[in-house]
Queue: 3 jobs
Job 1
Amino acid sequence: MEMGGYAGNVLHIDLTKSKVEREPLGPELAKSFVGGFGVNVKFAYDLIKPEIDPLSQENVIIIGVGPLVGTIAPGSSRVFVVAKFPINNTIGWAGAGGMSFGCMFKNAGYDHVIVKGRAARPVFLKIFDDDVEICDAEGLWGRGIEKTCDELWKKFGRPAGIVSIGQAGENLVKFAMAYIDKTSTLGRGGFGAVMGSKNLKAIIARGTKGVRVSDSRKFMRLCNELIERIKDYPRLKEWQELGLMVSLPFLPRELYLEKLKKDRISCTSCPIGDKDVIQIKEGEFKGLTKHTSSVVNTVMPMLWGLPYDEAVKCIALLDDYGMDMFEFFAVLDFVNRLCDHEIVTGEHLESKIEYNIKSLAEWAKKIAYREGFGDVLAGGLRGIIEMFGKQSEKFAPPMAKGLIAYVGPKGPVTWERFGTMELHQILSPRGSHVASGGSPTYFSVRPLEDFTTHFDRMGIPEYAVKRILPEPHDWPWAVQTGLVSPEEKMGLNVGRLTRYSEDWFTALASLGVCGRAQINRFYYAKLLAELYSAATGIEVDKKELMRRAERVWNLLKATNVREGFSRKDDKLPESWFEKPRFMDYTRKVEITKEIANKFLDDYYKERGWDVKKGIPTREKLLDLGLKNVAEDLEKLGIL
């Protein structure tokens, strides 16, 4: 069967044997798991053996792009990776704006690349149409992200998309990330270290083959209608000028526009241009230029008291090393707390950790190169706890599966409302991350009557809406008289909604559509199904598309269940229930541990999972066509 949308090929790279092979992407695989993120998950279940060391050569890197990537569908450049992550031993995933890499990789003729083994020396992969090579990277090893990308572009020219790691990945820092085109971050949880463990410095892709769609007339009509709707959006100009600052106003607009903004850039096919090129225009770091997925991320160290120019310099250093900013500051904060309680002393530290650029630059280098006490910090929050034992654990920041739960009443990003993003930090098989699933509870506060429109957009069935919004919105007398419980006062069941937020995210991710609010707000489940059908020739309606997304998420969960994860690992941080606490999304009900646990129960129920174990049931797996997975888990005594 010749499908549109898909390139139709999977690359297999064995670094140990220096071997490159190609195989067709089977139509049944594409149909059942959609593409991109979904097919990545299926490959991970089949190829990643349980209980392997994430940094061993047995681990497998899977990179994929969805069937809309490389087409003119707006915002369809997303790249996803799946591997076993070293920060917490989960079968983790990560997605990033594909910049030029996603489009170039697809145009080279591939939907996925699977990398196994370990090279005997540093290498990079060159994927230029049919010319696929494992190339020597000795000259790149030891260089940061910036120089790695610039040298590859100098050697091979542009356009070409690049995934690369810095020194943190080379030295197996457990919260090292990869970067796409030195701009988009890829792999919170240690994907950069997985690349480093394979001596894989970078992947560069260029393609000239084009991407065919099955029904070009229908596809063009759908895309043109979507583009017109985007053009008519009243806040389009504001988004194009300010990017994520529109919804995350952490930085004064005047400071951004007058002292930082140099240019706006975008991933291929994005009509917004939500990425930034910023440049410091005065002071000690005058002239420093930084490519970033968002200026908001680049100035985040201002939350720790740094002036804006030092904040930019700090993130420029961390990004060049290829290091997760949130984990970096989390481990430093944790160590300082342990110093306050004399668990960590001067005997451990070579120098004091202070929140100024000199000290932060010193500790970033120590961690990236695993120098001195930086070797301990390179193991992340869990590495510190392993060294200093149970006495240290009570001083740890709020964590989700070993990662900082960064959004919350005590997180680096202080936020009091308890919505899908906050709960999903705990429930996600990979742990805390930024993909909220695109539900309307993500940061923006909306009245409950607005939610039903979004529910329809996300493909939530009508019968489920009644469980998510179980009562009328006004509560005219019952709330005032106290005749309803705190949970009923909320009017919104975040636990049940989170299930559908995950499925919506999965549908977007598997097709390759950006999950950021300024793009996914223009998409809806019916349109996704129509675009998928027109592009691929595989006819689906929105109900079937969302069912396939549900299948993917259940398979991801089952892959982690096979690793030993269950409800015991969906652990709510104790500090969330100390003062100040989360409040509910709209009604200002204080979220107690009992209420949060009820949301967990409701989430498992809505998924049709075993509530006590927090895992898919045999019946659910069979219903989703995952019979072999059910049989595997039965043999292991899990079901």
Job 2
Amino acid sequence: MSEIASRYDASQVEDKWYQHWMEKNYFHSEPDDREAYSIVIPPPNVTGMLHMGHMLNNTIQDVLIRKARLDGKNACWVPGTDHASIATEAKVVKLLREDGIKKSDLTREEFLTHAWAWKEKYGGIILQQLKKLGASCDWERTAFTMDESRSEAVIKVFVDLYNKGKLYRGLRMVNWDPEAKTVLSNEEVLHKEEHGRLHFLKYKVVGEDEHVTIATTRPETILGDTAVAVNPKDERYKHLEGKKVIVPLIDREVPIIFDSYVEMEFGTGALKVTPAHDINDYEIGKRHNLEVIDIFNDDATISEAGQLYIGKGRFKVRTEIVKELEEKGFVQEIKDYPHSIGRSERTNAVVEPKLSLQWYVDMKQITKPALDAVMTGDIKFYPDKFKNTYRNWMENMQDWCISRQLWWGHRIPAWYYGELIFVADTAEEALEQAKEKTGNRDLTIGELKQDEDVLDTWFSSWLWPITCFNGFKDSEEFNYYYPTSALVTGWDILPLWVARMIMSGFEWQQKRPFRDVYFHGMVRDEKRRKMSKSLGNSPDALSLIEEYGADGVRYGMLSCSPKGGDLLFDRKHCENGRNFSNKIWNALRLIKSFEVDDKKDQPDDNKLAIDWINNKLDQIITTTNKDYKDYRLSEVVKQLYSFIWTDFCSWYLEMIKPAKGESIDVATFDKTIEVFEKMTLMLHPYMPFITEEIWHQLQGRKEGEDCIVSKYPTADASDINLV
């Protein structure tokens, strides 16, 4: 017997066993006669680096996959990355700028060459980092949302939706990110209360010796005002019906209109109406047929239409216009006014409402099957409290704006010839449509102009469970793995991604994309603050693994991550995990130090101790299996910790340990090894490296007899009720 090290050293174990598992191809799955258990990874951005949220999310998935593998199922965990249009394009633009190159100096093709080069160099870093965590993904199946297979599917479903009348192009008010110069979905805009100022401005009534005072937090937008609105029930303004006011500084005469949208209690009860730059103003403008004046360029500088301050940024203009308004007597007063501000999730820029021609999915046509699937339990949410969030979002959904003003992404498969639009899988098919529509058989591809925009990243990734298993091509493999067994994700992307995957599953496969959805909480610090680089409260994930070992970190995270609740992270949890590894290691050393006597009779006390520990073990097997089914993963690992540390190490080993200088009988020794093996198998999904090492230290193994592919222990039901 080789000598066992006095202290467990994760650095000497983890790389060794991960390489062994990879060489044995244990992570790879092909369809066979076993029950499939499949998970698709929520694809991290190619810009991403491993952080605490990734650590939690992927540890949970690995626990489920390793447990399924031990249960004899054909476990398949598909990894991959998301092209992340906005974030990646911003990275590439910044990198080019550092080299003295402007995006505007490049053609689309030249820029994409740089973007693909960046992706090849940096895009897979996070997947390599996941290996340090022990993630047993099927790396042969690694997918990317812009690889050939995924891209073909994205274009296919765009064309399909268009042909079915569920997708359209329209002029509507959108959320505009002036830094990224693209539209954002509602879910990509983060709202929070910020300090602001409420400006009370005087608009002179035409032909009268009076004025109407309005209140606004955005005085720069008066350049685009086309009306002042009041409530028809407001007695203060009834005498002004049919009158006009003069917009300060630009001297534009605009009508006073009466609209029930106006809140009489807010400000002065009079509302400036800027239809091009506020969604509610836009709706008022449509009702009253108002002129729409867009005063902003795409970068939120003032356009020619603004007449004044042309080319200056909106916030600089805000300062200057207030000063000028004060100097000319148009300011009645200014008050501090905290209010909600929407910022871009990607760039943190203040979002501008903007009237823009974009592509939309008509969501009302595709939501019902997806809503019914969750409400009836065909798809189960864990915790089920998120069903209410899901229902509320689905029942109040706006049409989905899917076009983005970027170059990195799936280019919209729409071609224009004058006012005509042709949507097709390829330019050649679009040309044939154009020839047929116009009757001009001499048309060439060069005469058609393809849409410059790309598709929203979420439009690409909502097909993920389908395209990861080639759902539009390989029916045999797809039918084996789909629907997937479980989706593990944060609750924050329920509307962005989870709901849309469910919709796409029913739209193109007529069935659910997954059976269960487990929503884990956010990783927060001990003060309950969300971990972020800006706060400086997020530890480096790889440094944690280096300090405490992957097993220690995995244990530390899951031991304090209640079902559906936030994880309040503290390094002491990882330290507890490292100490737990040492406790198990010392138990191994103790047992392997016993002198075994095959002629010695088994004492009655040892028989009683073995019956007791087996009874406790059977109880743990039963309760943990139930907890797995309910995704109570924190409860599972805490029960295993208590059983191994207290019942096995502190009590059982003390009961059967021979006195100094004496030997142990072979029956007790063999039963002890058997219990240790079962404990090792049960702990393996959570702490895979130390359990594989101990598995091989406990006794000699044949080729292929590895812990990772062994069988999860079953309980002897006859023992469970023993006292």
Job 3
Amino acid sequence: MTLKKSFNFAFQIFVRMANIFGSIVKTVYTVGSIPIEFKQKRLDPINAQEKELKRLLRKASLTAFGTYYNFDAILNSDSLFDAFRTNVPVHDYNSMYREWWFRELNGEANVTWPGVVKYFALSSGTSEASSKFIPVTNNMLRSIKRASIRQLICATRYDFPPDFWDKGILMIGGSTHLQYNGTYYSGDLSGISAANLPFWFQYFYKPGRKISKTVDWNDKLNEMVKNAPKWDIGVIVGVPAWVQILLERIVKEYNLNTIHDLWPSLAAYVHSGVAFGPYENSFKKLFGKPVVYSESYLASEGYIAYQIDLNKRIMQLIMDNGIYYEFVPFDDNNFDSEGNIKRDCKTLTINEVEEKVGYAILVSTNAGSWRYMIGDVIEFVNKQRCEIMIKGRTKHFLSLVGEHLSQDNMNQAIDHVSNVMKLDINEFTVAGIHYENRFAHHWYIGCDEPVDKDKILNMIDEHLKRINDDYRVERMESINELFIDVLPTHVFYDFMEKMGKIGGATKFPRVLKGARYDEWVAFISNYTKQ
């Protein structure tokens, strides 16, 4: 057999193995032969979290961090949870980096986690100007893979047709090209994860390694549009804004009615990063068939939660996969007016939380994050089942004078306007400003249809008054003016491109403050002059 024939034969075997993988997943899950670590288990959350914290403390006990904070003593204490939160301080990025992570970036081993950290995920959230370097260890990568497989297995209950499991998975993330400085690799978490994909997944993975390595978003977009007819996609994964742009480009390029004219097997969309509500109407127009919407919660710090029930748009915290959680009530007692956590904040364990209360999340992980605030605010829908909804970001709220306007409030108001006025409003942001010795809110709405902007503003205002008593009071007392600008949607993405934050996992901030607001105002001023 010639070398070429041998290669072709081996490739055919590989393709065949890949084609039957999905069917095997469903079969073995049904008969119960899949490894237990990949099953979605019913856990006692308190016991699960206690075991997880013990694992983390034991593993890191001989690191510089573990020695400094005497993890051995914490492990031997009568009350593990109390000893941990009493002896280890709460950290934000600045304190974690300044005191510990900078040493790992310089190649030092055994600082906050055993060994040398090989990967760092670049993250700036949606409001920070400079990049953050979040450590990603091999243990964390294994946890991410485990959670991803669990979510895949969880999808077996959706009763997709058998051939669905043979289809491609289009993952629209940041560039998989990683920078190497001689000590570590850095880049988007999606790039780090893609570099560590199991071999059997390569057949399913689209747009493939070559296109995924493309750094420039517009070049990547063009390549994906060009290659779209070659793919048979069953699942799309990505942030709504960039997925929508890609699908609209494909539909336009090939003169389609909907994306299902090209990808008839498309059955699921896994979204993350932002509330999906503002985008839903636009996606319905792009789809010609029903599509399952599934939410996942994968942050640079770890895989935190995913949706387990098709009929409920809520997610379940992953309690046994390398992360220990604490929860900080998101109120004035624990956070200042800029959303910064206070050093003397009150932290709660999973058994101490209440439903329908906003909490900022602290995580301690197998990547060397310790009591680290990731910046998201969640709410428990069902405490017993650890079911949550993301309500916003600690930095993405307005409370100039005590109006306590959350990102969730804003999303609800925009959804209300979109539904009543039959509009597609995919992007928006709001800023709090000083105005005539008092205060005002300035809304910026992304919409590509002719609209009555004063009507939109009035509807937003009235809806916020109904759902937020603090806002209603302060509108009468201190916030004496509201402003609105309606802009083409592309203006938001043009601004992000100018800031170097286009494509992948980046999101437009729902609240603008400080230097980022000044940059936005200057950008809008130049745009309106053109």
